[in-house]
TrEMBL record:
Residues 137-213 form the CS domain. It comes from Strigamia maritima (European centipede). This is CS domain-containing protein. One of its GO terms (molecular function) is protein-folding chaperone binding. Signal peptide: none annotated. It comes from the Eukaryota. PANTHER family: PROTEIN SGT1 HOMOLOG. Transmembrane segments: none annotated.
Length: 213
């Protein structure tokens, strides 16, 4: 059985190493955890050491363990949020800062700063995803003409494959979607018709230079 004296000695050695040699501090905190694994401060301090050497994912794991042992400490939620933020896990960071704020209203303004940072990063990611999606879309135009009996719509895309094209025709609408096998939508067209048509008699076909509906 580990003596209380040797445990304290190990913990103080770990604290002494912190700030001078983070790798050594991590090793010493690990030994302290092996001696007593129910003290949240051991995991918290090891997380701090890992954070200092930019091991953000590992720091996050240690803070999560510390929170399992003491979930009501706002500083731990702050520490988790900062670790998640630096690990680019902004959604999880947002949740951590929100939880910490509920436990420490006096520091609400400080948590709000981090919440705003997370919101900005999350929006940047969403904007980037939209930008990437738009950049991958096929630049396609369509044209149409009408006779006494028919309306013909041509979507000017070359070499389309049958299994990539979906056409839906109702009496008042026309929809066409070109979708790659990886489910990425590259082109989408929706038209509301001014007058009703006979959708049952409508057809479409793929030609080398266009899709004709």
């Amino acid at each position: 059985m580990t003596s209380l004296t040797s445990l304290y000695e190990q913990y103080h050695k770990s604290n002494a190493a912190f700030g001078e040699n983070y790798a050594l501090a991590i090793d010493l905190y690990t030994k302290a955890i092996e001696m007593d694994s129910i003290r949240q401060e051991y995991f918290r301090n090891r997380a701090n050491s890992k954070f200092k050497i930019e091991k953000y994912e590992e720091a996050k794991c240690d803070v999560i363990k510390a929170l399992e042992l003491s979930a009501k400490k706002s500083k731990l939620w702050l520490q988790k949020g900062v670790s998640c933020y630096n690990a680019s896990d902004y959604e999880e960071a947002l949740k951590a800062f929100s939880e910490g704020k509920t436990l420490d209203y006096e520091s609400a303004d400080y948590f709000d700063v981090w919440l705003d940072r997370c919101a900005v990063k999350i929006q940047e990611i969403k904007d980037k995803e939209v930008e990437i999606l738009l950049s991958k879309q096929i630049k396609v135009r369509h044209e149409w003409y009408q006779t006494e009996m028919n309306i013909v719509v041509s979507i000017l895309v070359k070499n389309a494959k049958r299994d990539e094209v979906c056409v839906e025709i109702t009496d008042k609408t026309l929809r066409c979607k070109i979708q790659k096998n990886d489910k990425r939508i590259e082109y989408k067209l929706g038209i509301h018709l001014a007058h009703a048509i006979n959708s049952q008699c409508s057809t479409w076909k793929i030609l080398p230079s266009k899709i004709e509906i």
